[in-house]
Amino acid sequence: MSRVLSDAADETSPSGGGNAPVGSLEATLRAARDEGRKLLVPYVTGALTPHWCDVVRAVAAAGADGLEVGIPFSDPIMDGPTIQEASARALARGATPAGIVSELSGVDVEIPLAVMTYYNLVFRSGHRRFARRLVESGVAAAIVPDLPLDEVGEWARAADDAGVETVMLAAPTTADDQLEAICRRARGFVYGVGLLGVTGERDELATSARRMARRLKAVTDKPVLIGVGVSTPDQARDVCEDADGVVVGSALVRRLLEGGGPDEAAAFVGELRAGIDA
Amino acid sequence: MEVRSSSPTTMGEPSPSGRFGSFGGRFVPESLVGACKELEAAFRSAWADDAFQSEYATLLREYAGRPTPVTECRRLSDRLGVRVLLKREDLAHTGSHKINNVVGQALLARTMGKRRLVAETGAGQHGVATATAAALFGLECVVYMGAVDVQRQALNVFRMNLLGAEVRPVDSGSRTLKDAINEAMRDWVASVETTHYCLGSVMGPHPYPWMVRELQRVIGDEARRQCREVLGGDDPDFVLACVGGGSNAAGTFAGFVDTRAALIGVEAAGGAAIGHGVPGVVHGMRSHLLQDEYGQVLEAHSISAGLDYPGVGPEHAYLAEVGRARYVEAGDDEVLDALRLLSETEGIIPALEPAHAVAYVARAAGDEIPTGSTVLVTLSGRGDKDAAEVMELLG
Ligand SMILES: Cc1ncc(COP(=O)(O)O)c(C=O)c1O
């Protein structure tokens, strides 16, 4: 995967951590897209099991272009039952934001990492401190679903200053003029929410998913990934007809909740990869 | 007694971003941003519209039973040495102040063309009120309620069902009000195009804290006129209300904020967000919040389901910060004593929530509330819903 790491991105490489260079999420995804590759960004819940870092490594090696690591929050209002349960289990094991982020510095993967969490954990830690921690651990980006455009300013400034990319979300209900503003503010990629609803597996791809992708592609050149309700290789392939790539969370996390380890995670990510490459 | 003047903006409109000082805001998933803006616009125009105001006033009068009286508590006053007046929201239709807010929001839902209401409920009173308004307006209604609260408020679950609402027990987290709110918000994220989220207190994303306070200010506006009659043109020295999310307190305070009355909110000791919380963001708002060092929200523990909430409405955080209102706590045991005291001295069985306010008056009379003071307490609801639980506790 090192083929997609630009020299410019290398210069921002942090001293600590062996991960892909901080600030490299958008550069990496753009480069891969421009080579004609569809993008796959799986989601795993941090600290879900004692060996969760092995899951991260396995997923990275199985064909992911980037990876979202969830930092569990007690009140995850964008998440459905699967990720809620994963968050609750991780918290019951004593997961902390600082612990997860610092463990990530040891995973040493070549793809860029993003954390996904809710704003109170960022706010409580302090914007600058949170951003600095991410940089120190080699985390490239952050996704904070309860920070919409009107509220993102304070965090986004701290993140920009530290070199952390803030992924912005767009929803099917987002008005057109807002869509452009969201894309302008987005770093890393634009996260198109595929349906009206919370995370979770769905039997069929919502018709809103491809429409969301088309609307975003019409207003931005940044990588457009669709997530929420993308659960199977077939669904991933379908949505990639319009999107640059997909985020897949609950379908992978469910396998981990059912006792799957690094091998099962890697096998599923391999299936997704094969699906979108087909 | 401490007398404070308030700035002209105290309990006025929040800033354009929905802030009271640094509190408030709109921290919601992108899917809900449009709905919050639509609601804000609908409320703004409705609130300025005479036709809406008069329909709302008619419903409050003819359906909800307003105005509710102010009752002078002679025997209790003799006992405590302070003159106690009760604003009787327990006499409003459905048994609590919650009906004021819900009738207004149901009218707004109709204006916006929404056919479905979702709500959260702790004590069940807001759920019952929402189910009632949904029946009145012919709307579909789903109420989320923590599984613990479903147990302890079984009577209200039955009432909601009778009214044609679906009650969905919530098994996540602490299985109380906080988790019911999460679940209601998740429902709203998925159904926002057809559904109005009928939030039950002065909390959540902008415009809810402001809108719900405006819909509840009828409590304070009425009470101020009524107190002046009883007190020969005077305002009370102290104005008290219990604080869960803070809607009955905010509605009450709004009527007295520009008087010399000392405003006191009474939180449950196990859910005292202003007493023990620190600034944080949950349920769409920045406010005081019980949380751990990492920002994980802590579970509140109170005898009263309606106060079992680790957060508080953002305007209360602001009123505390600027010193216009003071927030105190009452514990489960003294609340049960107060419930008994009011029942025996006045023949009024209060809900456990406002019994917190009564408990503080009982404790502070002759001390922080000097002997001879006049005290208005908003009795936000009646005790029927708690009878089974209290029977067990006192049994
Ligand atoms: C009777 C009664 N009082 C008070 C409350 C607390 O709510 P708030 O603080 O919004 O008035 C409740 C909530 O369920 C209630 O039922």
Largest sheet of chain A: 8 strands, parallel, barrel
- How many helices of chain B? The count is 15
Class from helix and strand fractions of chain A: alpha/beta
Instruction: Tell me about the largest β-sheet of chain B.
Output: 6 strands, mixed
How much of the sequence lies in strands of chain A comes to 5-15%
| Main interface by residue count | A-B, 41 and 38 residues
Query: Which strand order do you get reading across the main beta sheet of chain A?
Result: 1-2-3-4-5-6-7-8
The end-to-end span of chain B amounts to 40 Å
- Stretches with pLDDT under 50, minimum 5 residues of chain A: 1-15
SSE order of chain B: EEHHEHEHEHEHHEHEHEHEHEEHEHHEH
Helix content of chain B: 40-55%
Runs of chain B with pLDDT <50, length 5+? Answer: 1-8
Hetero groups in this structure are:
pyridoxal-5'-phosphate
Number of strands of chain A: 8
How far is the first residue's CA from the last residue's CA of chain A?
Answer: 19 Å
Q: What would you note in describing this structure?
A:
The complex is a heterodimer of chains A (278) and B (395). Chain A has 278 residues and is an alpha/beta fold. Chain A has helices at 7-11, 25-34, 52-61, 81-92, 97-104, 119-125, 127-136, 153-162, 176-185, 207-219, 233-239, 250-257, 262-277; strands spanning 39-45, 67-70, 113-116, 141-143, 165-170, 190-193, 224-227, 245-248. Chain A has an eight-stranded parallel barrel, surrounded by eight helices. In chain A, helix 9 (176-185) links the parallel strand 5 and strand 6 (190-193). Chain A is globular and about 40 Å long. Chain A starts with 6 loop residues before the first helix and ends with a helix. Chain B has 395 residues and is of the alpha/beta class. Helix content of chain B is 45%, strand content 19%. Chain B is built from 15 helices and 14 strands. In chain B, the strands form three sheets. Chain B has a six-stranded mixed beta sheet with strand order 3-4-14-9-10-13, with helices on both faces. Chain B has a four-stranded antiparallel beta sheet with strand order 1-2-12-11. In chain B, strands 7-6-5-8 form a four-stranded parallel beta sheet, with helices on both faces. In chain B, strand 11 and strand 12 form a beta hairpin. The longest helix of chain B has 23 residues, at 208-230. Chain B is globular, with a radius of gyration of 19 Å. Chain B starts with 18 loop residues before the first strand and ends with a helix. Chains A and B meet through helix 4, helix 6 and strand 5 of A and strand 2, helix 1, helix 8, strand 11 and strand 12 of B. Bound molecules: pyridoxal-5'-phosphate. The site of pyridoxal-5'-phosphate has 21 residues of chain B, from helix 5, strand 9, helix 10 and helix 14. Residues 96, 122-123, 125-126, 201, 242-249, 306-307, 351, 353-354, 380-381 of chain B line the site of pyridoxal-5'-phosphate.
